[in-house]
Amino acid sequence: MNLAAIGVPGLIIILVIILILFGPRKLPEVGSAIGKTLAEFKKSAKDIMDDDEIEHKKKTEIQEQVK
Question: 0.90 exceeded by the pTM?
């Protein structure tokens, strides 16, 4: 399922459900926690991608030296 398939009405329904579940006082805390979690996830994913790129470059250099 694609996130774009949800559409605006679906997002509004989701936001109303979240508002009902957590209440208006908790929403800033929930939003902050979600933001921090997403930022940490992006940082971790970037670190993994960078590590893979470095490892690939090292393997390529070793292969070129062997030839």
Answer: no
